[in-house]
Fold this sequence. Notes:
mainly beta; 112 residues; 49% strand; 4-stranded antiparallel β-sheet
Amino acid sequence: QGWLAESGGGLVQPGGSLRLSCTASDASFSQYVLRWFRQYPAQEREWLGEIFQDSDQTYYRDSVKGRFIISRDNAKNTGYLQMNDLSPGDTAVYYCSMNNYWGQGTQVTVSS
């Protein structure tokens, strides 16, 4: 296992919610911007959003703004991606990234 690890993916029905977690293996987590990406089959990873070190600034891709919320708990070395009102178009592998490190990815499937 690498420095970052995602968890929380799975199967969810359209309109449902999921919360992904991204946990670092040490406290240097608090020093870096946390970014979330997703990747569709045979496509490049696309940036979804990011949160600055002190959680004072967050930015989102337009297509997820208002549905996805990024947060972090530096005391737990963990960041989160809360995803609401999911649709089949959100089906992808989701990744977190910090300091040029990547997690292994977690599959999110939205289907009835």
